Amino acid sequence: MDDGMTVSAVNDLWIDPDGHVLAATWGGCVFRAAWDGASWTQHCSGLTDSFLLALDGIGSGQVWTGTYDEGVFVSNDHGLTWAQASTGLPFNEVSSLLVVSADHVFVGGEGGGVYETLDGAGCRSPAAA
């Protein structure tokens, strides 16, 4: 079941509508496999932190990940490549994500509470109560 997975710590899993399983790993970036998990491939392109804590996405192929020390990253190609999306976020350790839509994401982290983006571009504000 773990053919190709080179790390032992998986912190979060997400399944996209096309049947790919993505794993946020501790020290190994993102691993991606078909539904059966028979063959995993590692994807680090664009990530500046390989220690991932959270993973969530939507059906369009957009996936978000939270890192231990570099904030939030977003992928628009099913987790193959990543770009940082932490502008305005007052903390770097992102331990939880909730993707509502491509433009609406909640981000939770160490020492900062819950923030949200309403434009999908990384501009965050404290989540309204």
Report what the structure shows.
- This protein is an all-beta fold.
- The protein has a single domain (10-126), classed as YVTN repeat-like/Quinoprotein amine dehydrogenase (Methylamine Dehydrogenase, Chain H, 7 Propeller), CATH 2.130.10.10.
- Helices cover 0% and strands 47% of the residues.
- It is built from no helices and 12 strands.
- The chain has strands at residues 10-15, 20-25, 30-34, 40-43, 52-57, 63-67, 72-75, 83-84, 94-101, 104-109, 113-117, 124-126.
- It has a 4-stranded antiparallel β-sheet with strand order 1-2-3-4, with no helix packed on it. Strands 5-6-7-8 form a 4-stranded antiparallel β-sheet, with no helix packed on it. Strands 9-10-11-12 form a 4-stranded antiparallel β-sheet, with no helix packed on it.
- The radius of gyration is 14 Å and the shape is globular.
- The model has no long low-confidence stretch (mean pLDDT 88).
